[in-house]
Amino acid sequence: MTTFASGTTGSNAKDVLTRDALTVLQPGFTGTTAPDWLLRRLGEGLASVGLFGRNITSPEQLTALTAQLRAERDDVLVAVDEEGGDVTRLEVRTGSSFPGNHALGAVDDLELTRAVAAELGRRLAACGVNLNWAPSADVNSNPSNPVIGVRSFGASADLTARHTAAYVTGLQSAGVAACTKHFPGHGDTAVDSHHALPRIDVDESVLLERELRPFRAAIAAGTRAVMTAHILVPALDPDRPATLSAKVLTDLLRCELGYTGLIVTDGMEMQAIAGTYGIERGSVLAIAAGADAICVGGGLADDETVRRLRDALVSAVRSGELPEERLAQAAERVRTLAHWTAAGAADAQLQADEEVGLRAARRALRVTGADGFTPLTTAPYVAAFTPVANVAVGDETPWGAAAELARLLPGTETGSFAGADAGLATLAAAGPRRIVAVVRDEHRHAWMGAALDTVLRTRPDTIVIEMGLPQAPARGALHIATHGAARVCGRAAAEVIAGE
Question: I want to staple 485 with a disulfide (CB 3.0 to 4.6 A). Which of 2, 46, 357, 399 is the partner?
Answer without folding.
Answer: 399
